[in-house]
Write a structure and sequence with these properties.
The protein contains 16 helices and nine strands. It is an alpha/beta fold. The strands form two sheets. Strands 3-2-1-4-5-7-6 form a seven-stranded mixed beta sheet, sandwiched between helices. Strands 8-9 form a two-stranded antiparallel sheet.
Length: 411
């Protein structure tokens, strides 16, 4: 460990946190309102603990299903599990503060990271929320700031969608800068594309970095990678499965490849978990087949091009790319995948399905030993897709963490 710690706010499944843990940061607490994501965070905390003490076989037994989630958690020190706080920021911050204070003891906080829910800033989200005149999510940067005031970290990392910079003609971002300056922080923001950091997906995000005025750190120059990989590099070793596949584990279909080894997405297990798919009806499968055939001819299927007798959506004037096959450079993963798989159709016409949980996780650069939970152990498919769609890609998070670590140690 590098001796640096952090608090993760609005932690989600922990994609941002994963990058910081891999760079040697120690989590003090993860704060998250979604119950299923909290279980995911606890399970990942169990993984990191068992990895540190050389007992990963116990974790693999959980992935295989030979022990329960409760049995896994009971084998981990309580203080590890207790770092995950199931709480909604803004409703009872004093309670959250008291929990974090107990976890901290006499230590100070080096860093705060996190990404408040972004629907109120995204273009699609703003359209769906236009009836709301006072969306509380536009004010979550203030709640984030209250944690900065309370714990006074050396720096912070705030992740969000590009729309944060332009929503309400830039008012929210200007207010954010003004507020954080008033509590002692210099703030800069840049748009980063995850594809520049070894993720096989173009996913643009705003990364806001702030630092205490007495540190004078500046915005980090985050190292980019030449990325020549594509969808096949993350799909080809996974076995073919059918719609509605529910097997807990599968054997890999092929040896690992350069990309999976280089990025450690495939990283030590001899089996893959959560290669699980949703069922589909025959009408949707007919459309999937048409979409795949059209893409093989170099075109994308539009909703108004679907024969009327096959069409399942009446709207042929907007959202015309309702059905979309995952291309060689996958399009941005979004949380809508939790509702249906139409926007993420597997390219292999012989499988004829939407992508699995594991395939979605790989597009987002989660390693294969990362397990996504549900509020109930046996009910996780929709919550897993939602968590993946909302996540920060861990590979990009790792590059950010790498530079933040250098700045904090040397600055």
């Amino acid at each position: 460990m590098n001796g640096l710690n952090y608090i993760d706010l609005f932690a989600g499944a922990g994609g941002l946190s994963e990058g910081f843990v891999k760079e040697g940061f120690l989590p003090v607490a993860h704060v998250e309102a979604d119950e299923a994501a909290c279980y995911t965070l606890r399970t990942r905390a169990a993984f990191h603990h068992l990895c540190a003490i050389g007992k990963l076989e116990h974790y693999y037994n959980y992935l295989r299903g030979t022990i329960s989630r409760d049995q896994l958690y009971k084998s981990i020190p309580t203080e590890i599990i207790d770092t995950v706080l199931h709480a909604k920021i803004g409703q009872d911050n004093k309670h959250i503060f008291s929990k974090i204070d107990a976890l901290l003891g006499k230590k100070s906080v080096d860093l705060i990271i996190g990404g408040p829910p972004c629907q109120a800033y995204s273009i699609v989200g703003r359209a769906s929320l236009k009836h709301k005149t006072n969306d509380e999510r536009t004010q979550l940067y203030i709640q984030y700031g209250r944690f900065l005031k309370k714990y006074n970290p050396k720096a912070f990392v705030f992740e969000n969608v590009p729309g944060l910079l332009s929503a309400a003609d830039g008012k929210y971002f200007k207010n954010l800068q003004k507020y954080y300056k008033s509590i002692g922080y210099v703030v800069e923001a840049k748009k980063l594309d995850s594809y520049d950091y070894s993720v096989i997906q173009h996913r643009e995000r705003v990364i806001i970095v702030g630092w205490r005025k007495d540190f004078d750190l500046g915005y980090p120059e985050i190292r980019k990678s030449k990325n020549s990989y594509n969808r096949d590099d993350i799909f080809l070793d996974l076995p073919a499965v059918s719609p509605g596949e529910i097997s807990r584990t599968h054997n890999y279909a092929r040896p690992t490849n350069r990309y999976l080894t280089k990025t450690a997405l495939r990283n030590g297990t001899d089996f893959v978990s959560q290669h699980i798919t949703r069922p589909h009806n025959d009408r949707d499968l007919d459309i999937y087949k048409l979409a795949i055939m059209r893409l093989e001819q170099g075109e994308r299927l539009k909703n108004d091009q679907i024969p009327e007798e096959m069409r399942t959506q009446k709207n042929v004037t907007s959202f015309l790319d309702r059905f979309k096959v995952v291309g060689e450079k996958p399009h941005t993963m979004i949380a809508h995948i939790a509702k249906d798989g139409h926007y993420y159709i597997h390219p292999d016409i012989r499988q004829l399905r939407s992508i699995s949980i594991r395939e979605a996780a790989r597009i987002q650069s989660f390693p294969d030993d990362f397990y996504f939970e549900g509020a109930k152990e046996e009910q996780f498919r929709s919550s897993a897709f939602r968590q993946i769609g909302n996540a920060v890609p861990p590979l990009m998070a790792g590059r950010i963490a790498e530079k933040i670590k250098e700045m904090l140690i040397n600055g």
